[in-house]
Amino acid sequence: MNILEVTHLSKEFNLHILNNKRIESLKDINFTMKEGEIIGLTGKSGSGKSSLMKCLYRTYLASTGEIIYLSKNGAVDLVKADDHRIIDLRKNEITYCSQFLSVIPRVAAIDVVCENLFRVEKDKDFARSQSKNMLEQLGLPYDLWDAFPVTFSGGEQQRINVARAIIAKPRFLLIDEPTASLDAKTKDVVVDMILRLKAEGTSVLVISHDEYTLDRLCDRRIDLKFGEIISEEMATNQ
Ligand SMILES: Nc1ncnc2c1ncn2[C@@H]1O[C@H](COP(=O)(O)OP(=O)(O)OP(=O)(O)O)[C@@H](O)[C@H]1O
Ligand SMILES: [Mg+2]
Q: Rounded CA gap, 12 and 23, in Å?
């Protein structure tokens, strides 16, 4: 069953401060995604990967086209759905993990990570114990658990960001560069965590420039160039 059907999706920006200069970041994008599949989104810098992900999460409103998402309560067009429906899907089904961590200052790492799980489970102790468990697996030094992530290194922030995104086991995960600043061992831990989510049914769209991460994770790759899909390939390990 397809969890996602994208047809004729385009996105253009009108830059008013530059005399209405038009930038087409996505042009006639068409693809489908099966439930439980992991798709890798690849392509050079500026090819439109993050724009596509943001259109799916509705951070960007697509200029044309349809994004049919099969939610637990039936099909919904993420381009046309009203804001309440989008907020509800973001709370309960779709999680977006951006490339960089942005957090409220002065909230401890462990609380940043458990936030999404606490919202669903309403059990602070359970959420905190799950959060500790993830931080331990990800090798975040114990001393940092109660510290504020604002001052963390790039790789430490990335681990917090990934842990926060996956702790509540979203149904559909959009994840932008999850392993870019990580060492080989931690990269493997993150990849294993995402594979465990997949095993539990999560569908994942992942942006990565890292061949190792893509090889280990993806069932299929979609390659973008200048805002267009130039190839769709099944992974060689399938
Ligand atoms: N909010 C925006 N306003 C104007 N132009 C934008 C906006 N967001 C993206 N673009 C443009 O769309 C194009 C695609 O950008 P996008 O961020 O999707 O690329 P990307 O493939 O994610 O690149 P990278 O690998 O560097 O993250 C770029 O030319 C970018 O300048
Ligand atoms: Mg990007």
A: 5
Pocket test for ligand 1, best of 23, 53, 59, 207 (most atoms within 8 A of CB): 23
Question: For the chain, where are the E strands, in sequence order?
Answer: 2-15, 21-34, 38-42, 64-71, 74-77, 94-97, 172-176, 203-207, 220-225, 228-234
> Residue 100: what pLDDT?
85
SS3 for 171? Answer: coil
**Residue of minimum CA distance from atom 3 in ligand 1:** 13
Q: Where are the domains of the chain?
A: 2-93+170-234, 100-165
2-93+170-234: CATH homologous superfamily? P-loop containing nucleotide triphosphate hydrolases (3.40.50.300)
Per-residue pLDDT tens for 169-180?
Answer: 999 999 999 999
How long a stretch of residues is the chain? 238
Cβ–ligand 1 distance for 208 under 6 Å, the answer no
